[in-house]
Structure formats: structure tokens, C-alpha cells
């Protein structure tokens, strides 16, 4: 899909360390509409492409609004977003949705941890406006670090929202277990939050075979819907050796540590030196060397920056 | 690396091929002589007589349509055929002909086709902004012969971060070195977007905009087409304001290799949303735009690229670029050109194309 120019029309502080951006089309065509749970990719630098969930689902005014938490360990995405000023232009790719509401669900349980509130709030707004049945649990470290509290305590959402502030992990587990146990059969559960929160939710929902689970992954920088948040495994097709790639390391780095040196030059996804064939698994492309068609074909990737959509990636090495 | 042959190169500006005159150029290492026929249509033939290889460009135009060899007075028409032999019984041997090259005049440029495949004018990229009847304000349609390879010049033009360094004061400044970059490819056309918000207007832009050195948003978006045809949509506007409220120009850049190491570089600037300051200032501004751009390309760019090329050609060890984010544009065009050249060479070897 092609990139579209967008202008930052408004920057708003939503909470300590959380900013939201309102993006408007900068010339050319209008933005494409989207459904709750959708995300857009922002190009924040030549090899810095990050997905962010869209918040403004109801009464859509043609803009895209995203909320981003500044991560101290940011590899560029959230830091760059927090540097953006009103009037600056960036490129945006039309929305995709890996986290849609199930139209057949009779009841929805929406669970957000921290900045994971962004897609969850969009869903809650939509359900409230369309008369859907839902309840929302929002877990955060402190009120000052939780975004959109004004709206969540407003008339349309207050009655169905439970805020859980400053809970220790065992207490989070108890609250979640409790909420899940109260759900009617066939409830669809939607979860977005930091990795431990998602893992906990997954574990607890597994004990309720009558509940349907939807997960929106997000990792270091922001909502990362497609990426394997806990890392992934790379298998070398020729030798059969396999390596775990943790979320904070690149494939090239891990291979080099294990004595497998793949030639590189820019290590920024620009020059193409490390281009490697993909035998199986879907790469999550983060480079600017390959064309859109080559990205879509998925049979080759730049292992200095790109990652994996699947748990396992088999490379032609 | 071989040159791409089956493509339209820019030969020269229409204005630079005057009626009744022979113009010699070397494209892709091949000496060529160009002239206008009696009906004004342009013609290009090899600049070497088929008899003893004297350069035809040293001869003259006779009978309106023919080039007469300066050595033994054989006459050739625009198709390369010998049409008059003044010697002996006047018989013209079948081999007495020179190669001719398809030309097409469009967008105030004369385009030349160097390959053997059919020359389809529909393949010429859109440069209607340069059409004489576009009603637009155009700077001098200028050119220089640059002592640098077409590849190094293309690298320069598709990575405009250098404007902040090489053209400091004219096209950029220390404030414009960091920019937002985008890249997009449609078919074999590459778009490289570059924008810098809220910076003091660099010299040439300030000259066109408010002439007060105030803050602006700057953009410079390059469109590249095979083999070396570029439009730089560039300008400045109030911080946060739409581009349509600002001013700038479309920088037109055309690169045609003379040899592996030298390149014809044609350029002009078509103004967009020009502001008027009344005369004599408007005329003066147009002159300054032409002059400053020529200085930027001929002195500043050529200075650094020629030196760079010298380093590369004399290096006693193999060189490999260590690239940066700013190189996304150069890397992309190079992939496209490499692919096209490889394909052309393979076709030649497979015999599906005729030998060059």
C-alpha cells in the first residue's frame, strides 16, 4: 500500500509521557476510513516505520488520531513521535485491522494495560455509540500516567469502565481472574497492553474454553500489532541450526554472536547488503531497500532491521 | 557497468539546435552530429563519414537536408544514407551509410534513442511543465558538461541532504541537514520526499519568498525516471501552512552520459506560485535563480563530485560504500537501472535484441 503525506494538525498531552497526534491529509487524497481496532503505520524516519492504533473511531472527522507513550528504551519510534511539532509532515500508510470487533459477539470484555488503551478506547466508543454490550477494564501504574481518563469517566463510558490503578502483579491477576469468571458464555475478550499483561490474560482465558480471545500485541515502542512481541525463532535452512531472536536484538546481531557473519553495511535497512532469502514464515519488513511488491512477495528480507510476523522464520542461510 | 541503450536520453534543449548549424555531441561514447532538416525536424547521425571517418560535424549543411563531409564531399541525409558521391561515375556503394538515431522533440527538449529496439515516444516521461506554451516562468534552459559520471550525479540529486552542506547559504543551511524522508516507487519511477519544518529560509528560497530571512517549512521532493530525468518539486511556506500558500520551483534535471566519467547535465527551474515584486526586481530574481543554480551545480556540485570520482578511480584498494538512511533514493534508482541494464544485456546475449 502506498504512503500518503500527513500533517500533524494537533499535538496533545494526554497523560504524563503520553502524547496524542491528530493527523490530517497534506494535499492529495482524503484519508481512508477504518473500523475500531485498526492501526496505521507512520514513517518516522527512513527506516523507522511504526504502527499505532487509531483512537478516533466514532463521529469520524477524516483525521487519524494516535496516542503514543514515550518509552525510555525507545529505538526511535516513540521518541520521534514526541519530537514532532504541529505543522510537521510525515508519511502514513492506510489503516489495517488485525484486531477487529467480532460483529457476532453478544458481549465484549475490553482489557487495556497502560498505553494499550488506544485501540480499546476506540472499541468502547464504538460499542457505546452503537448500543453494543461491553465492559472495560483499564490497568495503569498511576492516574497521571493513564490517558483519556476524562472521557472514560464521562457519561457514556463511566458505568461500564473499571479503572485499576497501581496494582501489584498478583492483584492484577486476581482482578482479571475475577472479571473473566463473571463473563457470560461466548463473551469475546479483547486485550491490548504490555507483554506480561498479554501473557497473563492469555493464560487466564485459556481456563475458560467458552470465551473467545483477541490479542493486539504491543512492544517496546508502541502498539506493534503484527510483530512477535516476545521475539521469534530463526532457523537456518541449510544447516538446520536455530536461534531465538529477542525483541531487542536484530537477526544479524544474534547470528554474528553465534559465529555466523552475514555481510552488512548500513545496518539501517537501506543498502541491501544483508538481503537474505526467506524459505518459510512471514517477514515483518522494516527496510526501505525492497519495493512494495518485494515486501508483499515475502521471499526475501533485510535481516539487519526486519523481523517476523510468525513465531518461526526459516532463512536461506 | 554498461549504459542502458533502449531508452530516451535528453540530447539537448530545442533552443540549442539552430537551423543551418551542425551540433556535435558524444553520447554513451558515440560521436553524433545533429542538425535540423529543411522542415525543422531534428536529425542525428554518427559523426564519422563512412568513407575515411572524418567528422561530419566539421562539414556543412547543403541542399537544406544534407550534411557534406569536410574531407571528400560525400553527402549524407538525416537517415544516414549517402545521397551524393561527387567522384567517378557517382555510384554509391551499399555500405556507404552511417548510423542514424531516432530523435523526438517534446517539452522544449530533443530526446535521443540510443538502442536498437523501437523508439516509442510514449515512453518519454512527463515534463509538460517545460512546454513552451505552459505559460510558466522558466529560468534559463541551461547545461554544462560535468566532469563526473551520471551515476555520481544521480546519487547527488536523489540525496538532497548534501544541499545543507555543499550549497550552504543558497539551498540549505545547518538547520536543514536533518529532514523527514520518504520513498515511494511506482513502476520504474521513484519519488524521494524530503521536508524540514520551521527553519530559517535558505538564500535562494528567501529570495523568492519573503526576503526577510524568516522561518519556513521547506520541502524538496524528487521524482526520478529512467535513465536520468528528474523533477525536484521544492519550495517554502509559512511554518504549518499548506504548500500551496508558499512559493518555490520545479527544478528540472536531465543527465546524459558523454562517457563513463563525463555527463551532459541540463537544467532549468520552472517557478511555482511565483510572487511578484514588480519590475525591475522580478527580472533580477529570474536572473539570480538562473545564476545561483548554475553556480550550485557547476562549481559546488562538480567540485565535490569530480574530487570524489578521482578518489574512486585512483584508489589502490577495492571500495564499497558504507551507506546511511539518506541513501534510500540513490539505492532505489540504482537497483532499477541495474535491473534494466542486466535485462538488456541478457537479451543481447540471447540474441533477442540486435547487437548495439
SSE topology:
The complex is a heterodimer of chains A (317) and B (356).
Chain A: E1 4-15, E2 18-25, E3 39-45, E4 48-53, E5 64-69, H1 77-83, E6 89-96, E7 108-113, H2 117-130, E8 134-140, H3 149-152, E9 161-165, H4 169-182, E10 188-192, H5 195-205, E11 212-216, E12 232-236, E13 242-245, H6 251-257, E14 275-280, E15 283-284, H7 292-297, E16 300-302, E17 307-308, E18 312-315
Parallel strand pairs in A: 7-8, 7-10, 8-9, 10-11, 12-18
Antiparallel strand pairs in A: 1-2, 1-6, 2-5, 3-4, 3-6, 12-13, 14-16, 14-18, 15-17
Chain B: E1 8-13, E2 23-27, E3 30-36, E4 42-46, E5 60-62, E6 66-68, E7 75-76, E8 82-84, E9 100-101, E10 103-106, E11 109-113, E12 142-146, H1 150-158, H2 163-166, E13 180-186, E14 189-200, H3 203-208, E15 215-225, E16 229-237, E17 247-257, E18 263-272, H4 281-314, H5 328-350
Antiparallel strand pairs in B: 1-11, 2-3, 3-4, 4-9, 5-6, 6-7, 7-8, 10-11, 12-18, 13-14, 14-15, 15-16, 16-17, 17-18
List keywords for this structure.
heterodimer, A: 317 residues, alpha/beta, Rossmann fold, Ubiquitin-like (UB roll), 5-stranded parallel beta sheet, B: alpha+beta, Rieske Iron-sulfur Protein, 2 domains, 7-stranded antiparallel beta sheet
